[in-house]
Design a protein that fits this description.
The chain contains ten helices and no strands. By secondary structure, the chain is an all-alpha fold. The protein has one domain. It starts with a helix and ends with a helix.
Length: 249
Amino acid sequence: MFILNWLSHFGRYLQLMGRTFAIPQRWHMFLRSYRLEMVQLGINSIGIVLLISFFIGAVICIQIKVNIQSAWMPRFVTGYVTREILLLEFSSSIMCLILAGKVGSNIASELGTMRVTQQIDALEIMGVNSANYLIFPKIMGLLTMIPLLTTFSIFAGIIGAYCCAWIGGIINQTDLTFGLQYSFKEWFVWCGIIKSFFFAFIIASVSSYWGYNVEGGSVEVGRASTSAVVSSSVLVLFSDMFLTQMLTK
């Protein structure tokens, strides 16, 4: 029963994406919605991304220093491990999990409210492709902003590690700098950015699916928002496993 239910949702999801990825009927309307979605979904999330990344960078630096550093290891290991964690996992995967909760619930609740108040039905009656008109700008806006947020997260995490080293005095700044620069692979930065594109599509499309297909009243909007966050988070983790394996071979 679970498999049949999953296949049903997957088939409806593919049908919705088929309607979504069509040529916009009015480009000026699409561009206006696209700019608005970049602000609502991306720019409005910069604050929480910088704040969380700053403190996570500091916490990672402390934990590595306390639990790994020893007299038998070079002192720059703390900076090296902090950099690798930020580049490969936190600033792409974990940050997108956080954004799935913030952005995903926002998308699902917005579309769900439009569905229960029959605004989507009104668009369909007027002959508008509501999936393309409502969902396509959200997907493109998030695809544009998530890689930028990932880059900001990397810098904020490194700044947090520096502030931790400077204020807490747990590691010499020279050793931290050497560790951050030691054996640096530029490809790891691109790995995080490439993964963020996939995660952005998952968050935007899956959340839009749950919100767009709400049936019922306001209670169902809340359930759709919860389903959007849970489904997006699980799919982000699932895809992260394969993407990391493919990109870091």
